[in-house]
Design brief:
8-stranded mixed β-sheet; about 725 residues; 2-enoyl-CoA Hydratase, Chain A, domain 1; 3 domains; N-(1-d-carboxylethyl)-l-norvaline Dehydrogenase, domain 2; Rossmann fold; globular; alpha/beta; 21 strands; 6-stranded mixed β-sheet
Length: about 725
């Protein structure tokens, strides 16, 4: 008996408490130990049924149940899809037997129940959770390229109806608090503390031990009708065609499979009995699990993200630090956003600008965001006032005395940054961390004017700072391990994701992002219709198309970055030739079309209406050039991936975690690919297949797609980074 995994305790009233507690893991997952223990436990429950009043299912961990074993799921292939189907059917059969035990089963949810954890709870007849907003409940499988294959689709559709199950829980993988889940009808009862949880579950069993319906799911009762109707119900059927159309709109044409499979499983399953619907769900689950998409997304959104958040990129042996007070230099959009992120994380902020009016304007940005939260009921007026009080606007550098770190956020100009830091270093203490929020200027060059280059590091935030989760941390040649560790600690303190990269013009994210928007401009120069250019990107899974993004960053900034790169190349005795795409940008700037901020660029921005592509783009450049859709999509994906490979080759990147998470969260590389590094290694045929396809593109569209000798050599190993190098 696997009672070390699921403890079986029956009290004098006949109530059995099952406590899931895997001694070999920090969280309970659907691994082999769980499956064996649950099978034996259900066998025992059935054999002792006549002596049982009811069952309480709870956890001995801080979390209730963490879900499926993703390491096992990631190994699935097309050849093993049948095994995956059989495995998940076996796990679901156990839950179905528990559901049909004939005795009331209560889930006592003491912590997070995500994925398989919530699916276990859904198989119970009553669900009680601790009323703690830190606890999250949900089915996030769609974010990993999967669907809830443990009964989540089948049971939620029957509990809530197709529409609410899809929109409220399944298609976006929402994670909700217990109170939200109660309001949505997924949780039945809340208790204030964990100590009250099991007693409340037992009390519910006592109160319902004579009620036969308490131990029977509604869908197992004759005459059950699905809430909201099935696809054969006339009122529902009239709206059904809108479902795929709305999903396509939501996905913006992205090829990601899992939302489509979830919708199919929900709609198809609603038209048959429970057990048939469950098998339909299992088939879709096995198909997704065996595909490269789930392999890639699990790698990025679970393993890579978990690795970064747990400190894998942080130098070892350095004590963790905490910032109490930070100085922000420059109160423009970036500086104001950084100030907001720090203040909302409990850090005192000195927001400095050249004038007190500018600094006050920067603080007003935080007031605007906080007021919006108050209006939506997400923040109290008291908390709003306390957060805003943490920001002190100033034009006097002397007010920076005593800060633990400074973050410079002025314009991308070397001389200006030098002037700003000279003023700051005269005031701050010898232990103050010195950070520059630059997106392109090499940190080593900026360290040249710092009196403490070891404490100088790059912190590249992304706009808008309040929404973007990533911060790119750039180590200069002289940056110490201690400064790197402190920078990571600061980024995590403000609840953002830190990726660490090496130095170089554009570092990693800006450098790779630049190839995407220039490729879009290049297609304009080649005569491809602008609308085709944009749609090819969104259909490849990019969250926004290249010409629109070029307008967002501004055409003049692109020119400035190119100019600075040309100066650096000239200093090294090299020359950088202009491309046709860059010439398109130059022409637009000459016409006064500098981007969204100036009111016109590749798009027009009519007042009170959505932006539209500038009609003259077609008149000036379009030649009805026809390029296959796959080639258009691959030109974006491969151009960015090849530049990522160059970053590995030059040492700007040393680990695939930073490449993948930086690519997805920083510059919008399509999430379903798992990020640029995984896109290359997970390509059909592996890295060798990627190199072969890149050579095809180079033969047709130019040498910028030609893999380097280094990448071609790496293709033989199938990896971008040796395991030993990555660990180091």
């Amino acid at each position: 008996m696997s009672d070390n995994i699921i403890r079986y305790e029956r009290d004098d009233e006949g109530i059995v408490t099952l406590t899931m507690d895997d001694p070999n893991a920090g969280a309970n997952t659907m691994n082999a130990a769980y499956k064996a223990a649950m099978g034996e436990t259900v066998d025992r429950l059935e054999s002792e049924r006549d002596d049982i009043t009811g069952v309480v299912l709870t956890s001995g961990k801080k979390t209730f149940f963490a879900g499926g074993n993703l390491a096992d799921l990631q190994k699935a292939t097309a050849e093993t899809a049948g095994d995956v189907f059989a495995e998940v059917e076996g796990i679901k059969a156990q839950l179905r037997r528990l559901e049909q035990l004939g005795k009331p089963v209560v889930a006592a949810i003491n912590g997070a129940a995500l994925g398989g954890g919530l699916e276990i709870a859904l198989a119970c007849h009553h669900r009680i959770a601790v009323d703690d907003n830190k606890i999250k409940l949900g089915l996030p499988e769609v974010t990993l390229g999967l669907l809830p294959g443990g009964g989540g689709v089948t049971r939620l559709v029957r509990m809530l109806g197709i529409t609410e199950a899809l929109m409220g829980w399944l298609l976006q993988g929402q994670q909700r608090t217990p109170a939200d889940a109660l309001a949505k009808g997924v949780i039945d009862e809340l208790v204030p503390t964990r100590e009250e949880l099991v007693p409340a579950a037992k009390a519910w069993i006592r109160a319902h031990q004579e009620d036969a319906t308490a131990a029977t799911k509604p869908w197992d009762v004759k005459g059950y009708k699905l809430p909201g109707g099935t696809p054969t119900t006339p009122a529902f059927a009239a709206n059904l065609p809108a479902f795929p159309a709305n999903l396509r709109k939501q996905l913006k044409g992205s090829p990601i499979k899992s939302p489509r499979s979830i919708m199919s499983a929900a709609v198809e399953g609603a038209q048959v009995d429970f057990d048939t619907a469950s098998r339909i769900e299992s088939r879709y689950f096995a198909e997704l699990t065996a595909g490269r998409e789930s392999t890639a997304m699990i790698q990025a959104f679970f393993f890579d993200l978990q690795s970064i958040n747990s400190g894998a990129l942080r130098p070892a042996g350095i004590e963790r630090s905490k910032v109490s007070k930070v100085g922000i230099l420059g109160a423009g959009m970036m500086g104001a956003g950084i100030a907001y992120s720090c203040a909302t994380s409990g850090i005192d902020v000195v927001l400095k600008d050249v004038s007190i009016e500018g600094a006050e304007k920067g603080k007003a940005y935080s007031a605007k965001l906080l007021d919006a939260k108050v209006a939506k009921g997400r923040l109290s007026q008291e908390d709003r006032d306390a957060t805003l009080a943490r920001i002190t606007p100033t034009a006097d550098a002397a007010d920076l005395a005593g800060v633990d770190a400074v973050v410079e956020a002025v314009f991308e100009d070397h001389d200006l940054k030098e002037k700003v830091f000279a003023e700051v270093e005269a005031v701050v203490g010898p232990d103050t961390l010195l950070c520059s929020n630059t997106s392109t200027l090499p940190i080593t060059g900026l360290q040249g004017f710092a009196t403490r280059p070891a404490d100088f590091i790059g912190l590249h935030f992304f706009s808008p700072v309040d929404k973007m989760q990533l911060v790119e941390i750039i180590r200069g040649e002289h940056t110490s391990d201690a400064a790197t560790a402190r920078a990571i600690d600061l980024v995590q303190q403000i609840r953002k994701i830190p990726v660490v990269v090496g130095d170089g013009r554009g570092f990693y994210t800006s450098r790779v992002f630049g190839t995407l928007i220039i490729e879009g401009a290049q297609l304009v120069a080649e005569g491809v219709d602008p609308q085709t250019i944009e749609r090819a990107a969104t259909s490849a899974g990019f969250p926004a198309p290249p010409l629109a993004m070029l307008d967002e960053v501004s055409l003049t900034l692109t020119q400035h970055i190119r100019s600075e790169a040309a100066k650096a190349a000239a200093a090294e005795g090299r020359e950088i030739a202009s491309t046709p795409g860059e010439e398109v940008i130059d022409t637009l700037v000459e016409l006064g079309r500098k981007g969204r901020a100036s009111g016109a660029g590749l798009y027009d921005y009519p007042a009170g209406a959505p932006k539209v592509l500038w009609p003259e783009l077609r008149q000036r450049w379009s030649k009805d050039t026809q390029i296959p859709l796959r080639d258009l999509q691959d030109r974006y994906l491969f151009r960015m991936a090849l530049e990522t490979a160059a970053c590995f080759e030059e040492g700007v990147l040393t680990d695939t975690q930073a490449a993948n998470i930086g690519g997805i969260f920083g510059i919008g590389f399509p999430p379903h690919t798992g990020g640029p590094a995984t896109f290359m290694t997970n390509y059909e045929g592996g890295l060798a297949g990627f190199v072969a396809r890149a050579n095809e593109l180079a033969d047709t569209y130019g040498e910028r797609f030609r893999p380097s000798a280094w990448l071609t050599e790496r293709a033989a190993t199938g990896t971008l980074v040796d395991v030993q190098e990555s660990a180091a």
